[in-house]
Design brief:
By secondary structure, the chain is mainly β. It contains 1 helix and 7 strands. Helices cover 8% and strands 37% of the residues.
Length: 133
């Protein structure tokens, strides 16, 4: 079989990578629930429902293209509760980031953790226009 003279388009599998990342997290858990918002073709926001958690209770890390979000509440005195139905359990959610994706920033507001993701393709990998002489 003859080798192709054309290089693989680095953008061809972009939507498949995004679908796989957000629809197939690395572990089988539903806590905390999360949303993914598409801002444009290169920017996304992940939103996690983390009511009851403070900033210092949550750890976000990226290692070898794996985004990991961990949460653990500090020990509390539950003796004042007559009934406690709000989940406060610790969690770990991990996602395999698509190629060239980076985590921008994170923030919290009204019980929602926001993580900004953006696509950062190196200049040498971007399509370029070649002028005809």
């Amino acid at each position: 079989m003859m080798a192709s003279l054309y290089m693989k388009d680095p953008f061809a599998t972009f939507s498949q990578d995004i679908d796989r990342m957000f629809n197939a997290p690395l572990q089988k858990t539903n806590y905390p629930p999360y949303n993914v918002r598409k801002l444009d073709n290169e920017r996304f926001v992940m939103e996690f429902a983390v009511a009851g958690f403070k900033k210092e209770d949550i750890d976000i890390s990226v290692e070898k293209s794996i985004l990991t979000v961990k949460g653990e509440l500090a020990e509390s005195d539950d003796s004042d509760y007559l009934y406690k139905g709000i989940a406060g359990r610790k969690f770990v959610r991990s996602f395999s980031l698509p190629e060239y994706f980076e985590v921008g920033r994170a923030g919290m507001s009204d019980g929602i953790l926001y993580i900004d993701l953006y696509k950062d393709v190196p200049e040498e990998k971007k399509p370029k226009t070649i002028a005809i002489d």
